[in-house]
């Protein structure tokens, strides 16, 4: 069968042969056993819903074995034989160009070079899933290939509920992931209901088909590192950034450190992912011996090298050894997946990688104890470094939250609303006041031609737009404009593309609209192929997350989720091609609500109208909320937006004289 025929086949009427379990692939860890006997039967019944009754006798023992062996039913047998990668949009079967673009993005999320656990349909973060199983993937792709522009595909946590009649201006796909009744949103609830096959953890851009590999976070991390050094009045040259995590999005950290121009030491316990990042050029060197690491780091600092070093081992050992040897760390952070601490997101220092994987499945209670012991040790070592002048920030992975739950010494001795911890979230002191309040966030695009020449042309278009805008930009945003012009100029030489031909930069509403309009005109002239626009959920208005995206909201509303819900509703009727809303991205199940979108530009006048309407709302919804929280930068930004758009009328907060109060 051709690639197109396999897509159109969906779930085959004749079962394919069972697949060999490929040990060289980076697989998800075994999930803990959480279902009772009746629930296991229910999980099997739920999985078998996808198959005609004549196949049930064959599949029951196979799915039972998967559930017992891996803690989930992935339906490995149904994994397609074709290569999983983003293709030219014209290679996809279908009646609707928008649907073809979504197929391209789904395949990019599952590309072996992009996905963390591709055979388990997990893109990043240890549990950020595109689908729960391969039947869902096959059925979704079939629906997309059959869809017209008068239909909308409804996605329930990876399950394609079906194609419903709609209209041309409606989103082609609406995605929800993990939207639980609030009282059923604890970590064990995810384990249970995911094992039953009724919900999934979509992370942020994994479950919304908008992940573009680690590049998606390289830019934000570069901006964070640069602004972190500015905050402590240090230049990156000859300075040290220490962090951890190379899997999924955290793999961007060493590349970002290199672009910023510092020495980066990043610890990772998984040898497979460390090897992949080295082969991709995201890290320069791998060191497995602590003595050697100390010597090499001192040498790099003395020579002011721009180098990224992966330590294949535990980050706790690095923090403790660098303290013991008085090796000064300028910037410190952590990006292990502590939103998922009990199922492979964080590996305790007391166990080897193999021992940890075994214990988390077979003795989860003991594993939790080991993780919490390790967090207490790590926090104690970090405290010793910060006492010597290290600037440490939480990188939005729930490190401080989980460390506090473990009883670590991370609480602020004089807490105030929003400042419960000793250390800030990077959004509180860096990204929030410097970027999000002014409307700057991670705008991204994908060239559906899959042609590197199209990416070069879009880079040049975006750069020209930003340089023209900078001439008349107010002083308050000159630094943001300069950083992004520098970024886009160096994007090609930094070899950021993994998977699809994609790019990211931080832009405000004006910048996003002008860049998108310039792309649409270039498409209309035949200079480039169609473009998919999107963004990270980690943005100005896409996410309500009290310890990350909205951690610099101090009016008491950071635990509300009105902004994210309004964002996705508003995007859906203003022209998005697809929209998504998730529970649990980035910082943990039950800790955040986040939404995203995708939009296809095809060179049409309709696309021009859609992009102007939707992109303006998508950003200014968040600025308005931040302004109402009395954030000065956001008040400035929303007033500026009202000057440019007479139909925008936003309630501006009045401030109270503290002496009267």
TrEMBL record:
Keywords annotated in UniProt: Cytoplasm, Histidine metabolism, Lyase, NAD
Gene Ontology terms, MF aspect: urocanate hydratase activity
Record-stated family: Belongs to the urocanase family.
Gene name per UniProt: hutU
Species per Swiss-Prot/TrEMBL record: Flavobacterium sediminis
PROSITE patterns: UROCANASE
Subcellular compartments: Cytoplasm
Protein name as annotated: Urocanate hydratase
Binding-site positions, NAD(+): 125-126, 203, 268, 395, 586
Entry EC no(s): 4.2.1.49
């Amino acid at each position: 069968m051709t690639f197109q025929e396999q897509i159109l086949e969906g779930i085959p009427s004749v079962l394919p042969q069972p697949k060999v379990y490929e040990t060289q692939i980076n697989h998800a860890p075994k999930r803990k056993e959480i279902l009772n006997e009746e629930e296991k039967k229910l999980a099997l019944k739920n999985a078998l819903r996808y198959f005609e009754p004549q196949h049930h006798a064959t599949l029951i023992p196979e799915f039972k074995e998967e559930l017992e062996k891996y803690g989930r039913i992935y339906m490995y047998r149904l994994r397609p034989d074709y290569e999983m990668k983003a293709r030219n949009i014209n290679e996809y079967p279908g009646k609707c160009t928008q649907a073809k673009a979504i197929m391209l993005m789904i395949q990019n999320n599952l590309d072996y070079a992009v996905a963390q656990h591709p055979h388990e349909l997990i893109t990043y973060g240890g549990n950020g899933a595109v689908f729960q199983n391969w039947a869902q993937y096959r059925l979704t792709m079939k629906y997309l290939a059959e869809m017209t522009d008068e239909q909308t595909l409804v996605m329930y946590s990876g399950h394609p509920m079906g194609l419903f009649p709609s209209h041309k201006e409606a989103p082609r796909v609406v995605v929800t992931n993990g939207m639980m009744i609030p009282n059923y949103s604890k970590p064990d609830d995810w384990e249970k209901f995911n094992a039953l096959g009724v919900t999934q953890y979509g992370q942020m851009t994994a479950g919304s088909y908008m992940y573009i590999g680690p590049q998606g976070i390289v830019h934000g991390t570069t901006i964070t590192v640069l602004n972190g050094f500015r905050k402590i009045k240090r230049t990156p040259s000859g300075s040290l950034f220490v962090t951890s995590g190379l899997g999924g999005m955290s793999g961007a950290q060493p590349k970002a450190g290199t672009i910023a121009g510092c020495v980066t030491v990043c610890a990772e316990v998984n040898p497979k992912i460390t090897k992949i990042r080295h082969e991709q050029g995201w890290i320069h060197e791998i060191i497995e011996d602590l003595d050697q690491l100390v010597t090499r780091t001192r040498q790099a600092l003395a020579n002011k090298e721009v180098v990224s070093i992966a330590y294949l081992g535990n980050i706790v050992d690095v923090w403790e050894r660098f303290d013991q040897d008085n090796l000064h760390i300028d910037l410190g952070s952590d990006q292990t997946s502590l939103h998922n601490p009990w199922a492979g997101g964080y590996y305790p220092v007391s166990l080897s990688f193999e021992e940890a994987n075994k214990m988390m499945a077979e003795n989860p209670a003991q594993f939790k104890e080991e993780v919490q012991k390790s967090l207490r040790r790590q926090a104690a070592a970090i405290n010793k470094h910060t006492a010597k002048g290290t600037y440490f920030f939480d990188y939005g992975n729930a490190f401080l939250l989980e460390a506090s739950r473990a009883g670590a010494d991370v609480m602020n001795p004089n807490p105030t609303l929003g400042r419960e911890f000793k250390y800030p979230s990077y959004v509180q002191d860096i990204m929030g006041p410097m970027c999000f309040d002014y409307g700057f966030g991670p705008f991204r695009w994908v060239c559906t031609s899959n042609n590197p020449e199209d990416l070069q042309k879009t880079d040049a278009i975006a750069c020209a737009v930003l340089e023209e805008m900078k001439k008349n930009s107010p002083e308050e945003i000159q630094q943001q404009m300069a950083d992004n012009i520098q970024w886009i100029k160096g994007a090609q030489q930094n070899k950021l593309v993994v998977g699809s031909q994609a790019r990211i930069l931080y832009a405000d509403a004006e910048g996003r609209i002008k860049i998108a309009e310039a792309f649409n005109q270039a498409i209309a002239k035949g200079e480039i192929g169609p473009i998919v626009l999107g963004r990270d959920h980690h943005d100005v208005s896409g996410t309500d997350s009290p310890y990350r995206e909205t951690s610099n909201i101090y009016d008491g509303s950071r635990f509300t989720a009105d902004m994210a819900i309004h964002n996705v509703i508003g995007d859906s009727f203003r022209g998005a091609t697809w929209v998504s809303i998730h529970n649990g991205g980035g910082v943990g199940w039950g800790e955040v609500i986040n939404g995203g979108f995708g939009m296809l530009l095809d060179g049409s006048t309709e696309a021009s109208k859609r992009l102007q309407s939707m992109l303006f709302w998508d950003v200014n919804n968040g600025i308005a909320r931040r302004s109402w929280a009395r954030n000065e930068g956001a008040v400035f930004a929303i007033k500026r937006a009202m000057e440019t758009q007479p139909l925008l009328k936003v309630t501006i907060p009045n401030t109270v004289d503290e002496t009267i109060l």
